[in-house]
Amino acid sequence: MIKRERQWLLLLILAVLIAFPFIVGALTDSSPTGVPRGDRMIMRGESVRWQAVLIEVYLLAILAMSYNLIFGFTGVISFGHALFFGLGGYIVGLALEFTDLPTGLALIVGAVGGLATAALIGLGIGLVSLRLRGVYFAIFTLAIAEMVFIYFGRLQLTRAEDGFAITDLPTWLDPTQSRLTFYYIVLAIFALTFVFIRRLVNSPTGAVFKAIRENEDRAGAIGYNPLTYKLIAILIGGMLAALAGILQVILNKKVGPELLSVGFTVDPLLMTIIGGAGTFVGPVLGAASLHLLDTILREQVVTIGTTTISISDSWGLILGLIFIGVVLVFPQGIVGTWMHWRVRRQMRRRAVTESPGQNARVLQSDHEPPDRATSID
Amino acid sequence: MAQFRKTGGSWGIVISMIVGLLIFSFVTSNNPGTFGITVLSGLFQGMLLFLVASGLSIVFGLMDVLNFAQGGFFMIGAYVAFDVHHPGGLIDLTNTIPNTDIRFIVAVIAAVIVGGLIGAALERGLLRPLYARPIFQLVLTFGVSLVMIEAVRFIWNTTPYSWTVLFGVREGYFTLLGQQFSTYRLFVIAIGIVLIVSIALLLQRTRIGIIIRAGVEDSAMVEALGINVRAVFTLVFTFGCAIAAFGGAIAAPFLGASIGMGSNFLLAAIAVVVLGGMGSYVGTAAGSVLVGLAIAVVATFSSEYLNQPVWSSMTPMLLLILVLLLRPSGLFGERR
Questions:
Q1: Given an 8 Å threshold on Cβ–Cβ distance, is B139 in contact with A323?
Q2: Which domains are delineated in chain A?
Q3: In this structure, are residues A265 and A82 in contact, taking their beta carbons and an 8 Å threshold?
Q4: What is the pLDDT of residues A178-232, one digit of tens each?
Q5: How close B328 comes to chain A (CA, Å)?
Q6: CATH topology (fold) of B14-326
Q7: H or E stretch including B155?
Q8: Which of B140, B146, B329 sits opposite A316 (nearest CB)?
Q9: What residues of A are in contact with residue B267 (Cβ under 8 Å)?
């Protein structure tokens, strides 16, 4: 159960995020809605720039949370998460650009179609998991995602590798016109997703997810069909990933095969691991730290002697080193390491207050953290 | 022999698939020459796939590590061999060893040594602390593969190199069925067959081979028998990386050296390892030939009839999905 103080902390963070465009606007003296020119808005200024960064963080966080539901809570390793993300994006793009429907209707049809496709594919892939386990399932999903990626990379209808731009968006949603509105929409979806996953994992269904993660055979033996519950997790995770893909397409106003590339499988995987798999806040922290680091580092230039190296050229190197470092130094992710540290501190304090004599022994022994952090509460 | 009898049914599947592919290719080819080229390039691809996949397969079987950096070793092998063989670059041997044949051999040896050294360092320094946490090894090797690509980009630039300084086998051509073939393909196929057989002999007939096979079954038990399994892990990992670098080195005269070659081969090699059955050496060898041939047959067919090369790059994945649906633990994998 959520402790009251922690609930207040989360609400406080939400309030800061709601006020964020105005705070940055006031600090840098820029308008949170952009600069009007004629009857159109020009997105210029620090406030709107940082709104775009945070929108990306929110949707990556939704993607990472959806991956965490499958990987962190249910223990199913999938390498095909980009499939859901990319297909959601492609379908909303196709509905907006390649149909004659009015814009608003096309958007709704595309979003519903994207989510429905993700659900169908999740169902199909989930049914296959009846026969495949562990690495075999992971590689199977990778194979399907790669095939769809290659296919869309050559499909002439969607302009193959170049992809196509979204030109036809309702003005109230268009991030190049009313970014502030879009910021609040994505923030709301992000907050709802967070609450939804929390409720789901803390429900009886969520308890079965965790049981399957700990021991699939035993969960089956006490009468829960693991297939049904894995199916539910993959279905919901896939739909949430498709939702993130839809938001990504609206934000960048562009659809291309890169949405389906392995990158969008690896990113949520790493964000989950860096933040802490099987925790609620972990994937969000992972998404925020990776994307903010990316944004900040990309602008930096390092000068060694007379040669200047732009960090954006070697972003892959930095990312690779971060992976290696996190895996070796913080194996339980940010949240896991924090909990480990807190448990140790509590143990130490208890040892001091309860029996001073045993103090030394407790300090010496290395308290193992919980095998896998289950939740931050 | 017991091993072969247990998985006898899978030989049937493999052989019938290969024969089916060959018949399909022969019937759809316009002339026998095209058919010859298809088969030859299929076997060529299959052998290169084997060189990446064999290390992947043995390492996975023994250590449960899916080494995502294996493609990076293939790429580094190609770059080192290119650098040593060609004038300019880091190491210039054009004056020291003017004979191009000997220089190519030296280039291949250099690639194997570099690959092996990096592999040993990776296992000793980074993988060793992580044997208890398999998923983290995956993330780690993925991070290493990114670092490798960046390192290559830093040392050798981003522009792909194509092999310009030719040598003995790379220059030669022979004519068969009214069509010219490069002798180099034949050379690589021969090397591949020699390697498949010698690794099989190594695994079957030597003491270290017995230890490795026992370790694939149950490494904790082998350790309980008083064998230093950790040292065997290092040896096998190093060998796997060195053989991938060797593959890159002998692929370079034909494919050149580029940043993307590692990840391209890695995906196909993962498909080979999984459809062959993880940890099964026979499965990997058979799977390599099967996938290589399938790629070539589909490539020829689709370029002649469909005017779209897209299908050949999807072939390994399609084949993998097909095999996994028929046999959930691969062609030669144990049923769990």
A1: yes
A2: 4-284 (1.10.3470)
A3: yes
A4: 888 889 999 999 999 999 999 999 999 999 999 988 888 898 898 888 888 989 9
A5: 6
A6: ABC transporter involved in vitamin B12 uptake, BtuC (1.10.3470)
A7: helix B134-156
A8: B146
A9: 142, 146
